[in-house]
Amino acid sequence: MGMTIHVYSHGFVVCTTEKRYKWILAAFIRNRLTVEKFSIGKGNKGGGGTVYSAADAARTNIYLHIQLFEEFKTVLASQGVNSNEYEIVYHRVKKGQKVEIKFIAPFSMSELQERCLNFVREPVPWRIAPLQTGKGKTALALYFMCEYGERTLITMNAKYIPRWIQDLVGEEAKVDLANEDLLVIKGMDQLKKYLLLAKQNDLHFKVMMISNTTLDNFHKDYLANPKPWKKYGLKHITDFYTIFKIGFRIRDEAHEHLHFNFKFDLFTHVGKTLDLSATLIYDDQGTERISKIIYPVNDRFDQGKWDTYIEVMSVEYSLKPTTKGLKWTQGFNGPYNHNQFELSILKNRVLTEAYLGIIRAIVQELFIDVRADNEKSLVYCSTKEMCSKVSAYLQDRFSHITVNRYIGEDEYDNLLTAELVVTTPKSAGTGVDVPNLGVIINTVNISSTQANVQLAGRLRYNEKIASRYYYLTCVNIPHHLKYDAEKRHKLRNIVKSIGTLDTAHRL
To answer: How high is the pLDDT of residue 48?
Structure first.
């Protein structure tokens, strides 16, 4: 046989050295699995693209998504390749290690969660739960994990690990998991250590957590040189699940890092997976097309219309006629870049003082002066430097409350314990739940639908606290006005109202 196709739960591998088949594969990947990139700006040559497939170093083993298996066979037939010219090998999924975990969180499952749970229970290998922010995706996933009763792998961006640890073994844990039952793998050295122990049947755990970065490094290392991994029991990259005896995978914030998550599926061989996200929405058409391969629409739970409880307001300010030195594009005639905007402010002492004064006044008016009991607020800035400057400035001005900075290098408690937190969209724009959060003041201009929905979604429904989301718009910056119009369109069906607050503040 000139070609063998190995079929796994979430991907398939085409093994061949013949040029005829390689040409067909190359065309399939180029036409179906490549998202072109186009940029505007001086010196840009355009072109390029992101490829949603994988291969070993010799390019003799090509990894593709299982959702494309039938389509690929059709393409082979259309190119005159008969079914007797290649062999298909189906690999059976092994059951995971049986474990007993009880769900102990004191909560009553909503009608929406019950419908979603029944959808997840259906006997198919994958399910996607794109529930609205605040509707209990984590609780639902852990409830099903307990019910499923097999060793579970939970994967996520590393910054979300502290929150999941709290949900699993913290003081208010949702399950009765002991510390020794939770295995958190950090880095390749630990991964190799635990693989050896698992191979020797000397590793005991019920739930494993591992970051996307560690998994990505593992995948790349294995594809580049699989031979050293054989001593850990990995004859094939998918043996990861067999060695660890994993039967269920939860993937948190599945909308993030789509390229990694797509390739992650190519190396996955497990009985059941559940993907969690509130925003499987992509502005780019090519990326949206790819998302429907990894997250098929028929496998996504349809929750229907979102609950609308967030009041949104565009807070407008202007520039003084004498203001100079501001920059907000990347390069000559490039796209809007808010990092550049903040850095240009910080380079000028007068602009810095004026900008800090605007933020202080807005925080005073929209949070401090109208604050309910125990109510908290988030202020979003774009850069570490601006977060540091704003948090120190606000703590000095509002000494009667606790103001913290929360970015990647800060403790997770910084986010939870302060009444006012200055953070970035990357640090606390997704996957965090701040109790009694009532006000978000977003100084960062962002166009992405996904990002805007996630930021507003940090606000949870609270009977005692109104949810208000404010974003700053400079009326003298064309990009701000453009993004303002886009935000109004993108948020219109998921928030209670969208209005304008015209201020006298000038930068």
So the answer is: 64
Residues in contact with 66: Cβ distance below 8 Å, sequence separation at least 6, in sequence order: 7, 8, 9, 10, 11, 12, 265
What is the number of H-type helices and E-type strands within the chain? 17, 20
The pLDDT of residue 432: 86
Q: Are strands 152-156 and 248-251 parallel, antiparallel or unpaired?
A: parallel
Contact 151, 208 (CB under 8 A): yes
How is residue 43 annotated by DSSP? T
Are residues 133 and 253 in contact, defined by beta-carbon separation less than 8 angstroms? no
Which residues of the chain, if any, have pLDDT below 50? 40-46
Detail the DSSP E strand segments found in 37-106.
49-51, 54-55, 61-65, 86-90
Please name which of 220, 271, 228, 253 lies closest in space to residue 97, comparing C-alpha atoms.
271
How far, in Å, CA of 328 to CA of 103, rounded? 49
SS3 of 350-389: the string is HHHHHHHHHHHHHHHHHCHHHCCCCCEEEEECCCHHHHHH
Place of tokens 């007993």: 100
> Which pair of structure tokens corresponds to residue 344?
């240009």
Question: CA-CA distance, 406 to 404, in Å (whole number)?
Answer: 6
Residue 255 DSSP SS3: coil
Distances (CA, A) of 160 to 155, 252, 381: 9, 9, 20
Q: In percent, how much of the chain has pLDDT > 70? A: 97
Cβ atoms within 10 Å, residue 374: 11
Residue 79: the pLDDT is 96
Instruction: Take residue 432 and report the two structure tokens written for it.
Output: 């965090």
Which string of DSSP letters, residue by residue, matches 183-247?
A: EEE-HHHHHHHHHHHHHTT----SEEEEEHHHHHHHHHHHHH--GGGGGGT-SSTTHHHHHHT--
What residues contact 155, with CB distance under 8 A and at least 6 apart? Answer: 209, 210, 211, 212, 215, 249, 250, 251, 252, 264
Torsion angles phi and psi, residue 388, rounded to 5 = -65, -45
Residue 103 CA to residue 365 CA, distance in Å, equals 43
Per-residue model confidence (pLDDT) at position 408: 84
Rounded CA-CA distance 345/215 in Å is 39
Q: How far apart are CA 502 and CA 187, in angstroms?
A: 49
Among candidates 444, 435, 470, which has minimal Cα distance to 361? 470
| Amino acid at residue number 358 | I
Asked if 420 and 440 touch (Cβ cutoff 8 Å), the reply is: no
Separation between Cα atoms, residue 306 and residue 457, nearest integer Å: 11
- Is residue 192 within 8 A of residue 198, CB to CB? The reply is no
DSSP bridge partners of 471: 314, 442
Contact 440, 362 (CB under 8 A): no
Contact (Cβ atoms closer than 8 angstroms) between residue 135 and residue 189: no
